[in-house]
């Protein structure tokens, strides 16, 4: 039986995105428990660092990709004279590979051959075990296992302050806090992954009829603001519009107050998972078994598998894991009735 090294310094490399860093937090915190004496440093993207600032026991080093070569030069300077026992390179993007080159470490662990893309293999000297058909979070668990962390049940201790919670509660107001709360986080990073505004509105009205208050959340982009306005325009009942009004930590606190969240393939869905809020995920372009809300994959409404078979003639198990499918109208195949039925199921299952 091989003994586990006694690590004194561990570097994590995962720059983006919000959902993925939420998955990674569970692995990092499991590593902390298994290696309590190790100093843990996490190289992370600028936006993602806003969510994870003050993560207990972890030093965040921000890499701002917009700075290009300057960011790489700064990273080299930051780590000058250091030498980590191990680097866990949890990102296969080529940019992450160049970042990995700037991090001095005796051992650089990356993904297995099947998941290596964009020259990932050039920037590592050891691999995690292969995991066919694994969720993204399971991949991160593989990194923890590679440094001696036994299998664990993912859990999260997300960093937010009482002031963050107070601000979120002020935005929600006493009326929304004293009732069951249905939060819709309607926007993904690409418009084609969003459900239709009139259908979001139909679910908002349905939830209202079931005794829920309804709130919309999201960022300050034009796409998100316009989508929220269209949802409100189509709704027959009052909706609290918080789109563009919360910082990431405040959004986390809003999601924590929710009874249930409805979202497409987007970061806030995974943020909700970290604070124990049930999520109804809407999926058409990516496989929810790989990228769905980890603890609530049974609450997903999806048309991915039928469209994958239609477009390729093969199932997800017969294709490279994580194969995405294209189409601007795929999300429109998710019906209002299907999401209502899932809403009812979640309400019953979670005793809401």
UniProtKB/TrEMBL annotation:
One of its GO terms (biological process) is lipopolysaccharide core region biosynthetic process. It holds the Pfam family Glyco_transf_9. SUPFAM superfamilies: UDP-Glycosyltransferase/glycogen phosphorylase. InterPro entries: Glyco_trans_9 (IPR002201), LPS_LOS_Heptosyltrfase (IPR051199). This is ADP-heptose:LPS heptosyltransferase. Keywords: Glycosyltransferase, Transferase. GO terms for cellular component: cytosol. GO terms for molecular function: ADP-heptose-lipopolysaccharide heptosyltransferase activity. Its EC number is 2.-.-.-. It is an enzyme of class 2 (transferase).
